[in-house]
Design brief:
The longest helix is centred in the first third of the chain and has 18 residues, at 2-19. The chain has one domain (2-68). The chain starts with a helix and ends in an 11-residue tail after the last helix. It is mostly helical. It has helices at residues 2-19, 21-24, 61-68.
Length: 79
């Protein structure tokens, strides 16, 4: 019986340290961030919709969509 109590206490401790923390602490990663106005790569260079580097800025289609309705969050999965 003592071993069962120890396992039960360990399970409750793990649940409190992991499972409950999600309900108590908000994570800022879940808030929407406005998309950039122009398409750029990681180096800050302008790119087109296919990811090719270009000289002139290309308007980000998600920027226009976000400005029409900023409360809608759209999950985009990589190809």
């Amino acid at each position: 019986m003592k071993q069962f109590n120890n396992i039960l206490l360990f399970g409750l401790l793990c649940f409190n340290l992991t499972g409950c923390m999600g309900f108590l602490i908000s994570d800022d990663d879940y808030f929407a961030e406005a998309p950039a106005k122009y398409l750029v790569n990681g180096k800050g260079q302008y790119i087109d919709k296919n990811g090719n580097r270009v000289d002139s800025p290309v308007l980000n289609p998600y920027f226009e969509e976000f400005n029409k309705n900023p409360t809608v969050i759209k999950v985009i999965t990589p190809k």
